[in-house]
Amino acid sequence: MATGGIALLLASQPYSFRGLPTIAVTVYIFNLILFVSISAMITVRFVRVEGALVRSLQHPVESLFFPTFWLSLATIITGMERFGAPSSGPWLTHTIRVLFWIYLVCTYLVSIVQYWSLFAAQNHPIHDMSLAWLLPIFPIMLTGVVASVASGGQQDHHSIPIIVAGVSFQGLGMLVSILMYAVYVRRLMQFGLPEPSVRPGMFIAVGPPSFTALAFLDNAKNLPMNAKYISDSNATYEALNVTAAFNAILLWSVGLWFFGIALLSVLAGIRKMNTFHLGWWAMVFPNVGFALATIKLGQVFENDAVKGVGSGMTITLIVTYVFVLIRQILALVRKEIMFENKGNGS
Predict the structure, then answer these.
(1) pLDDT tens digits, one per residue of 171-219
(2) How far apart are CA 265 and CA 254, in angstroms?
(3) What is the pLDDT of residues 278-301, one digit of tens each?
(4) Cβ-contact 137, 179 below 8 angstroms
(5) What is this structure's pTM?
(6) At a CB cut-off of 8 Å and minimum separation 6, what does 271 contact?
(7) Residue 256, class by beta-carbon neighbours within 10 Å (0-12 exposed, 13-18 middle, 19+ buried)?
(8) Whole-angstrom distance, CA of residue 11 vs CA of residue 151
(9) 8 A C-beta contact, residue 254 and residue 181
(10) ∠ CA 321-323-329 to the nearest 5 degrees?
Protein backbone atom coordinates (compact mmCIF):
# COMPACT_ATOMS: atom_id res chain seq x y z
CA MET A 1 0.00 0.00 0.00
CA ALA A 2 2.95 2.31 0.64
CA THR A 3 4.25 1.66 -2.89
CA GLY A 4 0.86 2.38 -4.42
CA GLY A 5 0.60 5.53 -2.33
CA ILE A 6 3.96 6.76 -3.59
CA ALA A 7 2.85 6.14 -7.19
CA LEU A 8 -0.32 8.21 -6.68
CA LEU A 9 1.67 10.93 -4.94
CA LEU A 10 4.10 11.17 -7.85
CA ALA A 11 1.17 11.45 -10.25
CA SER A 12 -0.31 14.33 -8.24
CA GLN A 13 2.69 16.62 -8.18
CA PRO A 14 1.98 20.33 -8.78
CA TYR A 15 5.43 20.79 -10.29
CA SER A 16 6.32 18.13 -12.82
CA PHE A 17 9.17 17.42 -15.17
CA ARG A 18 9.67 15.32 -18.24
CA GLY A 19 9.67 11.67 -17.26
CA LEU A 20 7.80 12.04 -13.96
CA PRO A 21 4.57 10.48 -15.32
CA THR A 22 6.62 7.52 -16.56
CA ILE A 23 8.23 7.13 -13.13
CA ALA A 24 4.79 7.19 -11.48
CA VAL A 25 3.48 4.49 -13.84
CA THR A 26 6.59 2.38 -13.23
CA VAL A 27 6.13 2.59 -9.46
CA TYR A 28 2.47 1.64 -9.89
CA ILE A 29 3.40 -1.41 -11.97
CA PHE A 30 5.97 -2.35 -9.32
CA ASN A 31 3.18 -2.08 -6.77
CA LEU A 32 1.05 -4.51 -8.79
CA ILE A 33 3.94 -6.97 -8.94
CA LEU A 34 4.48 -6.71 -5.19
CA PHE A 35 0.78 -7.18 -4.47
CA VAL A 36 0.43 -10.27 -6.65
CA SER A 37 3.68 -11.81 -5.40
CA ILE A 38 3.02 -11.25 -1.70
CA SER A 39 -0.61 -12.37 -2.02
CA ALA A 40 0.52 -15.55 -3.76
CA MET A 41 3.09 -16.32 -1.06
CA ILE A 42 0.61 -15.71 1.73
CA THR A 43 -1.93 -17.93 -0.04
CA VAL A 44 0.66 -20.73 -0.27
CA ARG A 45 1.30 -20.39 3.46
CA PHE A 46 -2.39 -20.64 4.33
CA VAL A 47 -2.90 -23.62 1.99
CA ARG A 48 0.14 -25.60 3.14
CA VAL A 49 -0.15 -24.93 6.87
CA GLU A 50 -3.41 -26.27 8.22
CA GLY A 51 -5.29 -23.75 10.34
CA ALA A 52 -2.84 -20.93 9.60
CA LEU A 53 -5.53 -18.63 8.19
CA VAL A 54 -7.82 -19.04 11.18
CA ARG A 55 -4.96 -18.52 13.65
CA SER A 56 -3.83 -15.44 11.74
CA LEU A 57 -7.28 -13.85 11.82
CA GLN A 58 -7.65 -14.66 15.53
CA HIS A 59 -4.21 -13.43 16.56
CA PRO A 60 -4.55 -10.24 18.67
CA VAL A 61 -1.88 -8.41 16.66
CA GLU A 62 -1.42 -10.19 13.34
CA SER A 63 -5.15 -9.98 12.63
CA LEU A 64 -4.92 -6.20 12.67
CA PHE A 65 -2.80 -6.33 9.52
CA PHE A 66 -5.56 -8.04 7.50
CA PRO A 67 -7.07 -4.63 6.57
CA THR A 68 -3.80 -3.67 4.85
CA PHE A 69 -4.82 -6.08 2.06
CA TRP A 70 -7.84 -3.87 1.39
CA LEU A 71 -5.77 -0.71 1.65
CA SER A 72 -3.54 -2.09 -1.08
CA LEU A 73 -6.60 -2.74 -3.22
CA ALA A 74 -7.69 0.87 -2.67
CA THR A 75 -4.42 2.14 -4.16
CA ILE A 76 -4.75 -0.31 -7.05
CA ILE A 77 -8.32 0.74 -7.92
CA THR A 78 -7.37 4.41 -7.63
CA GLY A 79 -4.34 3.83 -9.83
CA MET A 80 -6.49 2.12 -12.46
CA GLU A 81 -8.43 5.35 -12.93
CA ARG A 82 -5.39 7.62 -12.65
CA PHE A 83 -3.02 5.68 -14.92
CA GLY A 84 -5.24 3.43 -17.05
CA ALA A 85 -8.43 5.33 -17.83
CA PRO A 86 -6.88 8.08 -20.00
CA SER A 87 -5.57 5.50 -22.49
CA SER A 88 -8.34 2.89 -22.23
CA GLY A 89 -11.88 2.57 -23.47
CA PRO A 90 -15.19 2.84 -21.61
CA TRP A 91 -14.79 -0.75 -20.39
CA LEU A 92 -12.26 0.35 -17.76
CA THR A 93 -14.56 3.10 -16.51
CA HIS A 94 -17.34 0.54 -16.06
CA THR A 95 -14.93 -1.87 -14.39
CA ILE A 96 -13.78 0.77 -11.92
CA ARG A 97 -17.38 1.58 -11.03
CA VAL A 98 -18.14 -2.07 -10.30
CA LEU A 99 -14.91 -2.50 -8.32
CA PHE A 100 -15.77 0.57 -6.24
CA TRP A 101 -19.08 -0.87 -5.09
CA ILE A 102 -17.55 -4.28 -4.40
CA TYR A 103 -14.77 -2.60 -2.41
CA LEU A 104 -17.31 -0.57 -0.42
CA VAL A 105 -19.40 -3.61 0.56
CA CYS A 106 -16.41 -5.78 1.43
CA THR A 107 -14.61 -3.18 3.52
CA TYR A 108 -17.82 -2.26 5.35
CA LEU A 109 -18.25 -5.90 6.31
CA VAL A 110 -14.59 -6.11 7.34
CA SER A 111 -14.98 -3.07 9.60
CA ILE A 112 -17.97 -4.65 11.35
CA VAL A 113 -16.82 -8.27 11.59
CA GLN A 114 -13.26 -7.53 12.64
CA TYR A 115 -14.19 -5.03 15.34
CA TRP A 116 -16.92 -7.40 16.56
CA SER A 117 -14.34 -10.18 16.78
CA LEU A 118 -11.98 -7.95 18.75
CA PHE A 119 -14.78 -6.89 21.10
CA ALA A 120 -16.19 -10.38 21.64
CA ALA A 121 -13.18 -12.67 21.76
CA GLN A 122 -10.40 -10.77 23.52
CA ASN A 123 -9.60 -8.38 26.32
CA HIS A 124 -7.45 -5.39 25.41
CA PRO A 125 -5.82 -3.59 28.35
CA ILE A 126 -5.46 0.14 27.82
CA HIS A 127 -1.68 -0.03 28.26
CA ASP A 128 -1.49 -2.36 25.24
CA MET A 129 -3.39 0.06 23.04
CA SER A 130 -1.70 0.95 19.76
CA LEU A 131 -2.89 2.82 16.72
CA ALA A 132 -3.06 -0.51 14.92
CA TRP A 133 -6.54 -0.62 16.48
CA LEU A 134 -7.45 1.93 13.80
CA LEU A 135 -6.58 -0.37 10.92
CA PRO A 136 -9.93 -2.24 10.66
CA ILE A 137 -11.72 1.06 9.95
CA PHE A 138 -9.06 2.35 7.54
CA PRO A 139 -10.24 0.50 4.38
CA ILE A 140 -13.85 1.69 4.58
CA MET A 141 -12.60 5.18 5.41
CA LEU A 142 -10.60 5.25 2.18
CA THR A 143 -13.84 4.70 0.27
CA GLY A 144 -14.08 8.47 0.07
CA VAL A 145 -10.65 8.77 -1.52
CA VAL A 146 -11.40 5.96 -3.98
CA ALA A 147 -14.73 7.64 -4.80
CA SER A 148 -13.04 10.98 -5.43
CA VAL A 149 -10.95 9.39 -8.18
CA ALA A 150 -13.41 6.80 -9.50
CA SER A 151 -16.20 9.36 -9.92
CA GLY A 152 -14.13 11.59 -12.18
CA GLY A 153 -14.67 9.56 -15.34
CA GLN A 154 -18.26 8.50 -14.68
CA GLN A 155 -21.47 9.88 -16.14
CA ASP A 156 -23.48 12.12 -13.80
CA HIS A 157 -26.06 9.49 -12.86
CA HIS A 158 -23.22 7.18 -11.80
CA SER A 159 -20.87 9.72 -10.25
CA ILE A 160 -23.37 11.22 -7.78
CA PRO A 161 -24.12 7.92 -5.97
CA ILE A 162 -20.40 7.14 -5.85
CA ILE A 163 -19.58 10.54 -4.34
CA VAL A 164 -22.42 10.36 -1.78
CA ALA A 165 -21.40 6.86 -0.72
CA GLY A 166 -17.74 7.84 -0.57
CA VAL A 167 -18.33 10.87 1.63
CA SER A 168 -20.69 8.88 3.87
CA PHE A 169 -18.22 6.12 4.62
CA GLN A 170 -15.27 8.50 4.75
CA GLY A 171 -17.19 10.21 7.53
CA LEU A 172 -17.82 6.89 9.24
CA GLY A 173 -14.12 6.11 9.23
CA MET A 174 -13.19 9.55 10.53
CA LEU A 175 -15.71 9.43 13.39
CA VAL A 176 -14.63 5.94 14.49
CA SER A 177 -11.03 7.18 14.36
CA ILE A 178 -11.96 10.03 16.69
CA LEU A 179 -13.30 7.47 19.16
CA MET A 180 -9.99 5.61 18.97
CA TYR A 181 -8.05 8.86 19.33
CA ALA A 182 -9.63 9.33 22.76
CA VAL A 183 -8.35 5.92 23.89
CA TYR A 184 -4.96 6.63 22.31
CA VAL A 185 -4.47 9.97 24.06
CA ARG A 186 -5.54 8.46 27.38
CA ARG A 187 -2.98 5.68 26.90
CA LEU A 188 -0.24 8.24 26.22
CA MET A 189 -1.22 10.36 29.23
CA GLN A 190 -1.40 7.38 31.58
CA PHE A 191 1.47 5.18 30.41
CA GLY A 192 3.70 7.47 28.36
CA LEU A 193 5.20 6.95 24.93
CA PRO A 194 5.51 3.48 23.35
CA GLU A 195 8.85 1.72 23.08
CA PRO A 196 11.17 3.51 20.62
CA SER A 197 11.11 0.69 18.07
CA VAL A 198 7.32 0.89 17.66
CA ARG A 199 6.97 4.68 17.75
CA PRO A 200 6.89 5.01 13.93
CA GLY A 201 3.43 3.46 14.22
CA MET A 202 2.30 6.72 15.83
CA PHE A 203 2.15 8.20 12.32
CA ILE A 204 -0.99 6.12 11.70
CA ALA A 205 -2.89 8.89 13.49
CA VAL A 206 -1.97 11.28 10.67
CA GLY A 207 -3.92 9.25 8.10
CA PRO A 208 -7.62 9.67 8.96
CA PRO A 209 -7.80 13.49 9.04
CA SER A 210 -5.47 13.80 6.04
CA PHE A 211 -7.30 11.35 3.80
CA THR A 212 -10.65 12.79 4.89
CA ALA A 213 -9.52 16.30 3.96
CA LEU A 214 -8.40 14.98 0.57
CA ALA A 215 -11.70 13.14 0.05
CA PHE A 216 -13.78 16.22 0.88
CA LEU A 217 -11.86 18.42 -1.56
CA ASP A 218 -11.83 16.01 -4.50
CA ASN A 219 -15.40 14.76 -4.11
CA ALA A 220 -16.74 18.31 -3.95
CA LYS A 221 -14.79 19.16 -7.09
CA ASN A 222 -16.15 16.13 -8.96
CA LEU A 223 -19.81 16.94 -8.28
CA PRO A 224 -21.61 17.65 -11.58
CA MET A 225 -22.01 21.43 -11.81
CA ASN A 226 -25.41 21.37 -13.51
CA ALA A 227 -27.07 19.00 -11.06
CA LYS A 228 -29.17 20.29 -8.17
CA TYR A 229 -28.12 19.61 -4.59
CA ILE A 230 -30.26 20.38 -1.57
CA SER A 231 -31.82 23.35 -3.38
CA ASP A 232 -32.62 24.31 -6.98
CA SER A 233 -29.82 26.85 -7.11
CA ASN A 234 -26.63 26.14 -9.06
CA ALA A 235 -24.80 28.12 -6.40
CA THR A 236 -24.97 25.03 -4.20
CA TYR A 237 -21.98 23.61 -6.10
CA GLU A 238 -19.82 26.58 -5.16
CA ALA A 239 -21.10 26.51 -1.58
CA LEU A 240 -20.22 22.84 -1.20
CA ASN A 241 -16.71 23.43 -2.55
CA VAL A 242 -16.12 26.32 -0.15
CA THR A 243 -17.43 24.24 2.75
CA ALA A 244 -15.23 21.32 1.75
CA ALA A 245 -12.17 23.57 1.54
CA PHE A 246 -12.54 25.03 5.01
CA ASN A 247 -13.41 21.67 6.56
CA ALA A 248 -10.30 20.29 4.88
CA ILE A 249 -8.18 23.00 6.51
CA LEU A 250 -9.54 22.02 9.92
CA LEU A 251 -8.82 18.34 9.33
CA TRP A 252 -5.38 19.08 7.86
CA SER A 253 -4.44 20.94 11.05
CA VAL A 254 -5.41 17.87 13.11
CA GLY A 255 -3.16 15.76 10.91
CA LEU A 256 -0.37 18.28 11.35
CA TRP A 257 -0.68 18.05 15.16
CA PHE A 258 -0.50 14.26 15.15
CA PHE A 259 2.39 14.44 12.68
CA GLY A 260 4.32 16.70 15.03
CA ILE A 261 3.69 14.44 18.04
CA ALA A 262 4.78 11.35 16.09
CA LEU A 263 7.86 13.02 14.59
CA LEU A 264 9.09 14.32 17.94
CA SER A 265 8.50 10.92 19.55
CA VAL A 266 10.47 9.10 16.86
CA LEU A 267 13.35 11.57 16.98
CA ALA A 268 13.50 11.34 20.78
CA GLY A 269 14.01 7.58 20.63
CA ILE A 270 15.79 7.18 17.30
CA ARG A 271 19.01 5.90 18.87
CA LYS A 272 17.10 3.03 20.46
CA MET A 273 15.24 1.96 17.31
CA ASN A 274 17.31 -1.18 16.87
CA THR A 275 14.56 -3.68 16.02
CA PHE A 276 12.57 -3.44 12.81
CA HIS A 277 8.77 -3.62 13.03
CA LEU A 278 6.26 -3.68 10.20
CA GLY A 279 4.71 -0.63 11.82
CA TRP A 280 7.61 1.39 10.44
CA TRP A 281 5.66 1.54 7.17
CA ALA A 282 3.34 3.94 8.98
CA MET A 283 6.02 6.55 8.32
CA VAL A 284 5.02 6.32 4.64
CA PHE A 285 1.38 5.52 3.85
CA PRO A 286 -0.47 7.83 6.30
CA ASN A 287 1.93 10.63 5.44
CA VAL A 288 1.17 10.11 1.74
CA GLY A 289 -2.36 11.25 2.57
CA PHE A 290 -0.94 14.22 4.48
CA ALA A 291 1.23 15.22 1.52
CA LEU A 292 -1.65 14.78 -0.96
CA ALA A 293 -3.94 16.91 1.22
CA THR A 294 -1.24 19.59 1.44
CA ILE A 295 -0.80 19.67 -2.34
CA LYS A 296 -4.55 19.76 -2.90
CA LEU A 297 -5.01 22.66 -0.46
CA GLY A 298 -2.23 24.53 -2.24
CA GLN A 299 -4.04 24.04 -5.54
CA VAL A 300 -7.44 25.01 -4.15
CA PHE A 301 -6.12 28.24 -2.63
CA GLU A 302 -3.63 28.79 -5.49
CA ASN A 303 -0.73 29.09 -3.07
CA ASP A 304 2.64 28.22 -4.59
CA ALA A 305 4.36 28.03 -1.20
CA VAL A 306 1.95 25.36 0.06
CA LYS A 307 2.34 23.41 -3.18
CA GLY A 308 6.11 23.64 -2.76
CA VAL A 309 5.82 22.24 0.76
CA GLY A 310 3.82 19.34 -0.66
CA SER A 311 6.56 18.65 -3.20
CA GLY A 312 9.17 18.76 -0.44
CA MET A 313 7.13 16.28 1.57
CA THR A 314 7.06 14.01 -1.47
CA ILE A 315 10.86 13.93 -1.67
CA THR A 316 11.08 13.19 2.05
CA LEU A 317 8.57 10.35 1.75
CA ILE A 318 10.46 8.78 -1.15
CA VAL A 319 13.65 8.78 0.95
CA THR A 320 11.70 7.34 3.90
CA TYR A 321 10.19 4.65 1.68
CA VAL A 322 13.61 3.54 0.44
CA PHE A 323 14.98 3.51 4.01
CA VAL A 324 12.13 1.40 5.39
CA LEU A 325 12.27 -0.98 2.41
CA ILE A 326 16.01 -1.56 2.87
CA ARG A 327 15.53 -2.00 6.62
CA GLN A 328 12.82 -4.60 6.06
CA ILE A 329 14.96 -6.54 3.60
CA LEU A 330 17.78 -6.58 6.13
CA ALA A 331 15.38 -7.73 8.84
CA LEU A 332 14.28 -10.63 6.64
CA VAL A 333 17.87 -11.60 5.84
CA ARG A 334 18.75 -11.49 9.53
CA LYS A 335 15.58 -13.45 10.40
CA GLU A 336 14.36 -10.68 12.68
CA ILE A 337 10.80 -10.96 11.35
CA MET A 338 8.59 -13.56 9.64
CA PHE A 339 10.36 -16.45 11.36
CA GLU A 340 9.33 -18.73 14.19
CA ASN A 341 9.71 -17.22 17.67
CA LYS A 342 10.49 -13.85 16.11
CA GLY A 343 6.99 -12.44 16.36
CA ASN A 344 5.25 -10.93 13.37
CA GLY A 345 7.22 -7.73 13.17
CA SER A 346 4.27 -5.61 14.19
Answers:
(1) 999 999 999 999 999 999 999 999 999 999 999 999 999 999 999 999 9
(2) 17
(3) 889 999 999 999 999 999 999 999
(4) no
(5) 0.92
(6) 196
(7) middle
(8) 18
(9) no
(10) 100
